[in-house]
Amino acid sequence: MLTYSTFSVLFFIRNGRQSSEKKSIYVRITVNGKRPEISLKGLF
pTM (2 decimals)? Predict the structure, then answer.
C-alpha cells in the first residue's frame, strides 16, 4: 500500500500590534494538511 505525505514551509512578515514600524517574522509549516504558525523571536 502506498502512502503519500506533503510538506511545505512558508515564511511571512506581520506588523506588530503596538507599533506599525516593528514587524514579526512567522513561519508556517504544513504537514499533511495540518499547519501551526510559529513566531520567530525578534522584531525587525
Answer: 0.59
CA gap 28, 14 in Å, rounded: 13
Q: Residues with Cβ < 8 Å from 23, sequence gap 6 or more?
A: 13, 14, 15, 16, 43, 44
- What is each CA distance from 16 to 10, 13, 23, 33, 44, in whole angstroms? 19, 9, 5, 27, 10
- From CA 42, how far away is CA 44, in angstroms rounded? 7
Work out the average pLDDT over 3-28.
81
